[in-house]
Amino acid sequence: MGTVVGVVIAVLVIVLAILVIVGYNGLVRARNSIRNAFAQIDVQLQRRFDLVPNLVETAKAYMAHERETLEAVVAARGAALSGLSAAQTSPGDPAAMQQLEAGQGALNAALGRLIAVAESYPDLKANQNMAQLSEELTSTENKVAFARQAYNDAVMSYNNRRETFPTSVYAGMFGFAVAAQLGIPPERPEMRDAPKVEF
What we know:
Elements: H1 2-62, H2 67-89, H3 94-118, H4 122-126, H5 128-163, H6 167-171
């Protein structure tokens, strides 16, 4: 009788260990998917940030007395880069994602103001370099949107895995915190619309 109980206990321990190992490995894979998806956002945002100075330089030649608008775009780009740096160190961290969202929102708003002001400058609208930059920026904005969707899907998958039984029992013990999606804060609905960059 004692041997049977010992065998049953041993089997239960082995099954429990297998469940923990499989669950842990699944969480690691899901967390790595978040990091990979965020890397795609990172690439597209870096491209966007690289286009902004060229856009400002091109506009500067035509909008000399709109210095405040141009400086606001440069400052917003700096804030957005800072938010991206915070998110790069810990993709999925709620505070880092919130900082990234705020930086992107400020850059979107500044670009929107630049575009609105640029409408008053027909020569700027006709500039070939500006047209090419605006086309590249529009393409990049679309790529950012797709990368954001892939990232948010990876976060949802990870959070679902983390919160379902039996993984939820030990996810916290192993340091698998809830990941935050890259969204748009409810208090900033204007961020839902990417700036239109047609000149």
